[in-house]
Write a structure and sequence with these properties.
globular, magnesium, nine-stranded antiparallel β-sheet, 292 residues, binds adenosine-5'-triphosphate, Rossmann fold, 2 domains
């Protein structure tokens, strides 16, 4: 089969707690209108990366369109990076927070986002590699990762689930933790309640956590939120309050190794990983083509 004009739509059926039939139908209609063949992969929540890699290796898709949240975008990015085919990735924001779509100023209206993804040209974006895993947006160790862990374990998706998990997590979180960061030939150490690794500037709610973030400068930022600043951190993460740089330390670099005294929760792009006391980070400069 000639697949030269074929597009792969990856749909996450559970992201953002919304049904995706309408999105699929709209993409089918828009693709038909511009005479593109469409193949659809619906994520299963298991073995998706392997399935996607097989599909991408077997076919010659000219574009990958992701309908889901940051976790689904990360899935598509990881698969494309692994096969070393520079397939452009378009985004239909159909997640809960849609951090990456907000970061890229993509239309949040589904119809507009579909047209944007189908018609526009891609730009190269850096990918942060955290312990060998791709991070497209914002990842962190500490209190926010603990919140996400408890949110993942609850059965309530969406913003409400996240909010409901906040209070018990904050009460139970053993803070602060001791960190040692090797970056730019220096050692930084101290106590923190959260250390974030960000390529992007803002969380999905629009809160700017990393004003220096640039998606294609070959660098990422390490943001150290010191202890005793819990109200400041929550204000930053939950509200659209610009960060107060006096309360956090920012290290701009292209690689770093972080050790913590005790294991702490790690989250990558809103997906809980596991507890760890070692994080190795590097940047894959302009490795992925995103349509924005
Ligand atoms: N069919 C499925 N059943 C259950 N879980 C799934 C399925 N498909 C994907 N998942 C899970 O969905 C998660 C990714 O969701 P995603 O991050 O895209 O949406 P979200 O969390 O609602 O939005 P956001 O990240 O923008 O807040 C992954 O943990 C993945 O394992």
């Amino acid at each position: 089969m000639n697949t030269a004009h074929k597009i792969l739509l990856v749909v996450n059926p559970i992201s953002g707690n919304t049904k995706k039939e309408n999105i699929i139908e709209q993409v089918q209609n828009e693709a038909k209108a511009i005479k593109k063949q469409l193949e659809i992969y619906t994520t299963k929540g298991k073995n998706d990366k392997d399935n996607l890699i097989k599909l991408l290796e077997k076919n010659h898709f000219e574009k990958l369109i992701i309908a889901g949240g940051d976790g689904t975008i990360k899935l598509g990015v990881s698969a494309v990076m692994e096969i070393h085919k520079n397939i452009p990735i378009g985004i239909i924001p159909a997640g809960s927070a849609n951090g990456m779509a907000v970061e890229l100023n993509l239309p949040l209206d589904i119809q507009k986002a579909i047209r944007h993804a189908l018609k526009n040209t891609p730009k190269p974006v850096d990918i942060v590699q955290i312990n060998g895993e791709a991070s497209i947006h914002i990842s962190d160790i500490g209190i926010n990762a603990a919140l996400i862990k408890n949110y993942d374990q609850s059965n309530i998706r969406g913003k409400l689930g996240y909010a409901l998990q906040s209070i018990p997590t904050l009460i139970n979180f053993k803070e602060p933790f001791h960190y040692k960061i090797n970056a730019n030939g220096k050692v930084f150490s101290g106590d923190a309640i959260m250390v974030a690794f960000a390529n992007a500037q803002k969380y999905g709610n629009g809160a700017v956590i990393n004003p220096q973030g640039k998606l294609n400068d070959g660098k990422f930022e390490i943001l150290i939120f010191k202890s005793l600043q819990i109200p400041k951190i929550l204000e930053t993460v939950f509200n659209e309050v610009p960060i107060d740089e006096e309360f956090i330390e920012i290290i701009k670099t292209n690689k770093a190794v972080i050790n913590t005294e005790n294991p702490v929760p790690l989250q990558i792009d809103g997906e809980y990983g596991r507890e760890t006391n070692f994080v190795e980070i590097s940047i894959a400069h302009k490795q992925v083509q995103i349509i924005y």
